[in-house]
Amino acid sequence: MNFRKIFFVFVLAIAVFFCFPFFIHNEIFDRFNLTIPETKSYAQVEKNTQKYFNVQAYDAKTGKKLPYRITRVGGYDPSKQYIKIDHRGQYVKKIQYVSKREFNKKVNNNKF
Question: What's the average model confidence in pLDDT over 31-39?
Fold first, then answer.
């Protein structure tokens, strides 16, 4: 192999290494991926649990479903059912429990 081929393979490997996190979406990579904006969403979750999986969230501005589901959300009040989520992709920064009235107002009374 000559120097150009080795250099090309090296540059290609470095480019793949730095671009890889932009194509993987999980809570670890999304936390540091600055191309994903931090958003506020609303969701209805199950009662009597504090671990919510595969949560369908609704955008706070438009009231429409997000094109993806949030894989894992941790809660702290098993008696509540509606949450406001501050997140960046799959990375959940914080949640806040809200009333059913506020949830319905933000999602424009969209039915599940």
Answer: 86
Q: How many CB atoms neighbour CB 48 within 10 A?
A: 7
The token duo for 67 is 């094109």
Is the pLDDT at 112 greater than 80, yes or no? no
Placement of tokens 């919510």 in the chain: 52
- Judge whether 92 and 71 are in contact, CB under 8 Å: no
CA distance 37 to 39: 6
CA distance 92 to 98: 16
DSSP characters over 44-111? E--SS-SEEEEEEEEETTT-PEEEEEEEEEE-S-TT--EEEEEEETTEEEEEEE--HHHHHHHTTT--
CA 33 – CA 22 distance, rounded (Å) = 7
Q: What is the mean pLDDT of the segment spanning 70-79? A: 90
